[in-house]
Amino acid sequence: MIFLKFLLYVWMVLVLLGAFFYAPLAKGLGEYTRVMYFHVPMAWITTLTFLIGAIYSILYLRKKDIRYDYYSETANQLGLLFALLATITGSIWAKMSWGAFWNWDPRETSIFILLLIYAAYFALRSAIEQQDRKAALSAVYDILAFVTVPFFIFIVPRIYSSLHPDPLINTQGKVTMNGKMQLVFFNSLLAFTMVYFWMLKNKLEVIKLKMKLKQLES
Amino acid sequence: MIKAYYIFRKDLLQEFKTRFAMNAILLFAVVTLSAVSFAIGTFTARQEVLSALLWIILFFSSMSGLSHIFVKEEEAKTADTLKLVASASAIFLGKFLFNIVLLFLLEIIVVPLFIALMNFNVQNYLLLFFTLFIGSFGLAGGGTMVAAIISKSGAKGALFTVLSFPILLPVLVSGISATKIASQEQGWMTAYSELQTLFAFSVVIITASILLFDFVWNE
After folding, report:
1. Which residue of A has its CA nearest to B171?
2. Backbone region of residue A173 per phi and psi (left: phi > 0; alpha: psi in -120 to 50; beta: other values)
3. What is the ipTM of this complex?
4. Which range marks the domain in which residue B60 is found?
5. Which of A185, B12, B82, B150 has the greatest number of C-beta atoms within 10 Å?
6. Residue B156's closest chain A neighbor by CA?
7. What Rg, from alpha-carbon coordinates, does chain A have?
8. Has residue A11 been placed in a domain?
9. Looking at the complex, does the CB of residue A8 fall below 8 Å from at least one CB of chain B?
10. pLDDT band, residue A35 (cuts 50/70/90)
11. What pLDDT, in 10s, does the model give residues A157-179?
12. Is A8 inside a domain boundary?
């Protein structure tokens, strides 16, 4: 496992170097386009981790095992963190490219709503004392919120014209990047995903230990 | 299904005895409407602003009344008896039916008042009517479900709006957009994608609510 950790470290360093020095610039665009190598992985991990959180919520409702509630809370915590990072990196892009950090583009609106939803999720969690009730209600809210997420990510930006460059999953299904850019981009995507899974694994391990401790105490 | 109707009738009769939710929601709407009307004053606002204001009034007035339907069961400690009488989905449907009737009542009173007071020109009344009709299903579906969650948690009043707002935002966004179109032109085609979103959202949120309600109710 230690070996894998070092491998991840070297990989991330290579990705960072590649993003700043190796990848060529897109034609006609400035240095600020390099934020793409960080912004897109953040946005992708946000979607992924909210999906994982929702799956754990469903598992909780089916199995009624309190462990899954902790897992889904953890995944959503990480989701909030990555959504914030995606917002910040996107804001930097917006400042350089559109002239303002924030101007209510449909994409910006949808990520803002995503932040609001999961902030409300944690507000709900903090409002309930009883543990199993907290788990069940927040799981239901999580699933309810998650079914509305596609409306923000896919439908609203399609209806209202957005200045946002085509997302990775676009309607034409093509990638408009040259070879070197693609190499760095997909490596960055994978490396950040691995970092995310490593973070998630560590947090889940802590939860397992805490539960074991509680068992020993009682 | 017949049980859902009985629940709906029981709530309706109960409502006519106290008229709590009805008074709260209607007075809230009238108060907001007059506040907006005072604020805008004599000069007329643009149609875009007016259609946004109409939906904001509708949204926040419904937030003031929709949660009552479940909170009152918890306060009167009648929720457990209700569990014995009917299945969870029947209860949800009954409560949902009541909330949607409440919303229609609100719209019947507020929308004509709004049009008269704010000098809101509507070109396509049928489109406005249709938007409000589908929008109400989404609002009532999401609102009823969040009300159920709220009634089971400790904090009742404050959290309801916080939890509902992000979930119901697709209704608000496409509702405002469709209302704007109804106020500006005769045609239907430009509002097609907005109506589609409203309809899809209502179906998704009501289905998800019916499936999930059991876990909230029998918790």
Report:
1. A151
2. left
3. 0.86
4. 2-217
5. B150
6. A127
7. 19
8. no
9. no
10. confident
11. 666 666 676 555 444 444 566 77
12. no
